[in-house]
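Deliverable D5.2: sample structural annotation.
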Amino acid sequence: SIAVKLKRKLVYENSHSQQLVNVQNMLHWVNHLKKAKNPYFKDIFTDDELFSDSFKYKIVDDIYYFIQGKYIQERDDGNYDIGANPSAEEANEDTEATVRNGIDVCLIQRLLEVSLTKAQFKKDIKNYVKHLVTHISANNPTRGEFLKKNLNAVILGWLENFDDLSFFVGESNGEHGCFIVARFHEESGIGAPVDIYILKDAV
């Protein structure tokens, strides 16, 4: 009958739409694996993997890495929501799966978010920079002098915008591990861009 044919067509279209969304989500992660040349940038003190060259990044002022991250939703069934519009059936399935929201770089690298007051961060980053500069200066005095002259401006910028930032450390939370600094845009929700900063000499 016509009603049966229409029902079959609707079921097929919903299924096809769900498949397309799943493909979009999967491609986001496959691209990170395919594009990686020398996969990971590691913390020089803890050897934690901080990010890979599959993410869009650049070096700013020869001081820090700027990585373009994205706010996503990770599901325990292996699927990811990166901002594509899910089908009605997939939206219902979300209620059956455990989900967590976070920044793609941080979820992939298992970075740990840390809660700090401004005073704590100021103390910790001061100690970290002192240790970092001492280490770099021992191997490259010229670079060490460069850092002494230029790192403070970056740190002051983070302190001035402290309330807009989130802070992460490597998976091991090891001694002398560097800070990964994240800043959200005004745009919010799944798929929104997130700016990530890591000191160049920390990796």
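Annotation notes: Helices lie at 2-35, 88-93, 104-109, 118-139, 141-160. Strands lie at 40-42, 49-52, 57-60, 64-75, 80-81, 99-103, 112-114, 165-169, 180-184, 193-199.
The annotation will be released with the project's public dataset once the embargo ends.
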